[in-house]
């Protein structure tokens, strides 16, 4: 007896009784804070993954997809709360996209100050996404252009910008700088501060006291010349109040301080290696030092010639060549900046050694006025 095959009706039975599996959609980390998930749907279960193709919107649906109009700009003072949102309708409830916020083109992430909440509802097969940003105690750094972004079917949709403008006291973007100046020579200082709100006006202070009228920012301030240490600063005013800059220290260039720690670090039969420590530079770079070398006289009243060796610095050491073997010498050093030379140090004494020997240990050198 032949048996009747049943693949047709058995396959139809399996298709009609496909097992439905309900799955939760993953939520990206940056939107996990405060997100309200949509209720699990039981009337339209998702099929087992792999048995249905991905959901795509039609070209016409994609053309009509856009974020709803929202507020274009917000002005508020520092310390207040800023709250703004964007929303969009998705015409297919099977899609589960997430809104991404960007600020000035960079992804905005939630933190203690910035909280992102997302609400998702479904009505008649249309899913509405509403994303809200709350910034607690806004600061100047929160100013900028905010947008929502959404990716569907490999296309990215972007909302119109929401511009946040945070008003407060003037903010300095350039403050007066320390200067080292030549006595009685004129110089110029500059200062710049910005709002919002604008305009910002600048007033200059000399040693803490007003020294000018008000000028629009940025401001340059010409000083005819000073002959002693002094400080300048500037005040920036707008409708919110006043901000004071740092104080710029104005130093007068003077002669360098005396050289110290003159030491013969190596002795040979025909030269020394000499090192020293410069004094204060007098608010002008030390560029040269002068070594004075004089042979110690062997007879009372004998006048010995002083030889000068110019050294470009740094570093503050130099060879002293052209010496006689087994002879005592006086040495002193002074250093110069653009103003002039430091005081000449007292003589120190050291002696060369016999030929063919080098001594690197620094000898004890006694100062002498000879």
UniProtKB/TrEMBL annotation:
Which keywords does this chain's UniProt record carry? Immunoglobulin domain, Repeat, Signal
Q: Which PROSITE patterns match?
A: FN3, IG_LIKE
InterPro entries assigned: FN3_dom, FN3_sf, Ig-like_dom, Ig-like_dom_sf, Ig-like_fold, Ig_sub, Immunoglobulin_dom, Striated_Muscle_Regulatory
Stretch forming the signal peptide: 1-24
Q: Which residues form the Fibronectin type-III domain?
A: 258-355
**Domain called Ig-like: residue spans:** 69-163, 170-251
Q: Does the keyword Repeat apply?
A: yes
Spell out the protein name for this chain: Tyrosine-protein kinase Mer-like
